[in-house]
């Protein structure tokens, strides 16, 4: 490892280097965030007032743009009034890392104050179920359709032009219709995840299927395979590892629809938490909730990647090691 | 092909909904009410938390929504009743979901505001300026009323459609010169943008915005007895909140609903004028002005027609049922 250069095209890194870089990939953005938050001369466009002085509309704890603060300061200086005091601050929309870390912890430990209220982990679990059902339903229809479209040109022609059109339609715009048909609870939310995932899914998977080496199909046909055998003995086993990877990416796609989906119908899940906290400007809680979604997404993907290695041990990385 | 595709989806969804949302199917007698974040509606939480509906012998299920989503769900026929303003009841009704207002819960007494950026100190200075407002709904009405009070019309300002809960950020961005919002967003706009002024509030025109419980005519016809019990529970709630001996308990329940502390919530309640039964009775007279539900709703109707929020005048008689408050 001592001699290998860091930037060698498509050569796998040593395990140690891999670990260091993985850590760095998280540390670098965190460092930028910390720098913006903790160094007063980077950004910090506002002044938080500690002493209002003689400025009549200033209040302790109020945030104000630096320029305005300076103007008022100068005015008081000339007029000989009491000078306002304050320190540079970022807008409330950008909390500092430690604030978010504290909010992350306390939001889980805060007891529900009403009987009908849920713990945060219960809200999160509710959101996960919405994703699960939306994605599962989408897969039940989308995966077979994608494989068929990728295998048979006729099936592809019958579906793909319309799907190409439909995938550009904004899923949330179907919210009102979904509520009218499916009620106010989880039905319309799952429907939005479905609409957001399904159309991409069919296209991605049919594309993957089409990439299967045609020599395999020709060989099977030469050996007398019928259509059914071709599909189940050649195509599906052939595309399975890549299909699994596609599904992992599509699951991430489904997550991105969660917030718009949960805004439809009754307020529920993690979105209820985020919107309610944002309404009352508790952005540390909002960021904490956003982190939770990220962490859940990342962990589930890591888990699935592990599982993938078990399921498809013959599938090697495309880097040389 | 398109149809086949859609049909298969719909079938799956219907099966799914039956399994997930069975409550709405199973219990036909439950009354479903949508409510949202406004002090006069959060007040219902007191009854929910204290089981007063069960005590009164009526099965009511309150569901929490974003305001716009609650009206949408009501319009889609998924709710028996929804909390909204009298003006928005007309707007929702114009799209086909007519409702009957059976409770005048409160009127906004300062909570709804036109907040102008620093430098603008009066409504007349808004001429030629950009105003962020949720077009077509209650804030829009307040803005039109404000403009009219100084002889301006909508044509004199440039409207920017902004969801009410984003107004504080939008005003802070300085992309608009004023916003229209109700609490908590109006108060936050004021504190986020120091030097900004509430140039016009619902306190300037009490009765412009009545907050009501609006019931679907079908449910009202089928469950008159039940709704009557709901109304009785409502006045119990109002008395509880207005009683100095119990207001603290009420505040702690209400603030918990929206995730605030009772101290933070108290000022929001102050700009909401809750109405006891005796006070509400007086608002059912048929006057011309803002001092009655009839007059206020009629003015909203005229506004909405003039500014083409909708095109056909609404039959106001069908929207108001005073019998629940006035007594049988």
Describe the structure concisely for a colleague.
Chain A has helices spanning 15-38, 66-79, 97-109, 120-151, 153-166, 175-182, 186-210, 214-222, 227-256, 258-262, 269-279, 283-311, and strands spanning 46-51, 63-65, 85-89. The relative contact order of chain A is 0.10.
Query: Beta-strand percentage of chain B?
Result: 15-25%
CATH class of the largest domain in chain B: Alpha Beta
Low-confidence segments of chain A, given as residue ranges, are none
Number of helices of chain B: 18
Number of strands of chain B: 11
Q: What are the low-pLDDT stretches of chain B, counting only 5+ consecutive residues below 50?
A: 21-28
CATH superfamily of the largest domain in chain A: MetI-like
Helix-strand string of chain B: HHEHHHEHEHEEEHEHEHEEHHHHEHHHH
Distance between the termini of chain A: 12 Å
The level-1 CATH class of the largest domain in chain A: Mainly Alpha
Could you say what the CATH topology of the largest domain in chain A is called?
A: MetI-like fold
Average residue pLDDT of chain B = 89
Query: What's the number of extended β-strand segments of chain A?
Result: 3
What percent of the residues of chain B sit in helical stretches (DSSP H or I)? 40-55%
* SS class of chain A: mainly alpha
Give a short account of the largest sheet of chain A. Answer: 3 strands, antiparallel
Mean pLDDT of chain A: 91
Proportion in helices of chain A: 55-70%
CATH fourth-tier homologous superfamily of the largest domain in chain B: Periplasmic binding protein-like II
Question: Your description of this structure?
Answer:
The complex is a heterodimer of chains A (321) and B (328). Chain A has 321 residues and is mainly α. Chain A has 3 domains: 1-41, no CATH class; 46-89; 107-311, MetI-like (MetI-like fold, Orthogonal Bundle). Chain A has 12 helices and 3 strands; from the N terminus they run αββαβαααααααααα. The mean pLDDT of chain A is 91. Chain B is α/β, with parallel strands linked by helices and 328 residues long. Chain B has 2 domains: 29-109 and 209-326, D-Maltodextrin-Binding Protein, domain 2, CATH 3.40.190; 114-204, Periplasmic binding protein-like II (D-Maltodextrin-Binding Protein, domain 2), CATH 3.40.190. Chain B is 48% helix and 16% strand. Chain B is built from 18 helices and 11 strands. In chain B, strands 2-1-3-10-4-11 form a 6-stranded mixed beta sheet. A 5-stranded mixed beta sheet of chain B has the order 7-6-8-5-9, with helices on both faces. In chain B, helix 13 packs across helix 14. The longest helix of chain B is centred in the first third of the chain and has 19 residues, at 2-20. Chain B is globular and about 55 Å long. The termini of chain B are far apart. In chain B, 52% of the residues are buried. At the A-B interface, helix 4, helix 5, helix 6, helix 7 and helix 11 of A face helix 1, helix 4, helix 6, helix 9 and helix 10 of B.
């Amino acid at each position: 490892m001592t001699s290998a250069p860091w930037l060698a095209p498509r050569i796998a890194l040593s395990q140690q280097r891999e670990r260091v870089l993985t850590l760095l990939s998280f540390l670098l953005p965190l460092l930028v965030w910390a720098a913006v938050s903790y160094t007063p001369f980077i950004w910090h466009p506002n002044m938080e007032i500690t002493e209002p002085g003689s400025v009549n509309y200033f209040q302790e704890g109020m945030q104000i743009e630096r320029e305005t603060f300076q103007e008022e300061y100068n005015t008081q200086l000339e007029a000989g009034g009491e000078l306002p005091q304050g320190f540079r601050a970022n807008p409330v929309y950008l909390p500092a890392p430690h604030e978010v870390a504290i909010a992350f912890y306390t939001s889980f430990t805060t007891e529900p104050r009403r009987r009908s209220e849920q713990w945060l982990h219960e809200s999160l679990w509710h959101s996960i179920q919405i994703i699960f059902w939306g994605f599962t339903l989408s897969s039940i229809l989308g995966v077979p359709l994608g494989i068929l479209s990728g295998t048979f040109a006729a099936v592809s022609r019958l579906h793909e032009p319309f799907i190409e059109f439909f995938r550009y339609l904004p899923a949330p715009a179907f919210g009102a219709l979904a509520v009218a048909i499916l009620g106010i609870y989880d039905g319309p939310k799952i429907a939005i995840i479905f609409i957001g995932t399904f159309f991409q899914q069919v296209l991605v998977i049919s594309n993957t299927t089409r990439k299967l080496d045609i020599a395999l199909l020709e060989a099977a046909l030469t050996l007398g395979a019928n259509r059914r055998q071709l599909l189940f003995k050649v195509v599906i086993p052939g595309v399975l590892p890549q299909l699994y990877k596609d599904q992992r990416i599509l699951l991430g796609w489904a997550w991105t629809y969660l917030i718009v989906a949960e805004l439809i119908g009754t307020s529920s899940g993690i979105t209820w938490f985020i919107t309610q906290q944002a309404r009352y400007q508790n952005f540390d809680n909002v960021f904490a909730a956003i982190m939770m979604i990220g962490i859940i997404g990342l962990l589930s993907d890591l888990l699935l990647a592990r599982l993938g290695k078990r399921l498809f041990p013959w599938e090697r990385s495309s880097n040389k090691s | 092909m398109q149809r086949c595709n859609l049909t298969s989806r719909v079938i799956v969804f219907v099966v799914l909904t039956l399994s997930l949302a069975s409550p709405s199917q199973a219990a036909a007698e439950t009354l479903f009410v949508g409510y949202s974040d406004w002090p006069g509606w959060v007040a219902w939480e007191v009854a929910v938390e204290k089981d007063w509906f069960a005590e009164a012998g009526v099965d009511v299920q309150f569901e929490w929504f974003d305001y716009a989503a609650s009206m949408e769900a009501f319009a889609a026929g998924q709710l028996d009743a929804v909390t909204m303003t009298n003006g928005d009841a007309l707007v929702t009704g114009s799209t086909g979901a007519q409702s009957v207002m059976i409770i005048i819960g409160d009127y906004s007494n300062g909570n709804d505001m036109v907040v102008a950026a620093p430098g603008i100190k009066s409504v007349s200075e808004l001429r030629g300026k950009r105003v962020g407002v949720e077009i077509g709904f209650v804030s829009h009405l307040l803005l039109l009323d404000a403009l009219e009070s100084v002889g301006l019309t909508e044509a004199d300002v440039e409207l920017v459609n902004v969801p009410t809960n984003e107004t504080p950020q939008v005003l802070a961005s300085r992309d608009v010169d004023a916003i229209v919002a109700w609490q908590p967003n109006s108060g936050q706009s004021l504190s986020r943008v120091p030097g900004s002024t509430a140039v016009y509030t619902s306190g300037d025109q009490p009765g412009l915005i009545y907050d009501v419980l609006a019931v679907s005519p079908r449910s009202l016809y089928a469950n008159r007895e039940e709704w009557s019990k709901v109304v009785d529970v409502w006045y119990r709630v109002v008395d509880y909140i207005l009683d100095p001996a119990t207001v603290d308990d009420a505040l702690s329940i209400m603030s918990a609903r929206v995730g605030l502390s009772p101290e933070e919530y108290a000022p929001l309640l102050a700009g909401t004028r809750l109405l006891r039964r005796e006070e509400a009775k007086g608002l059912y007279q048929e006057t011309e002005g803002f001092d009655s539900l009839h007059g206020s709703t009629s003015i909203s109707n005229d506004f909405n027609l003039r500014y083409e929020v909708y095109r056909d005048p609404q039959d106001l008689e069908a929207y108001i049922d005073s019998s629940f408050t006035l007594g049988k």
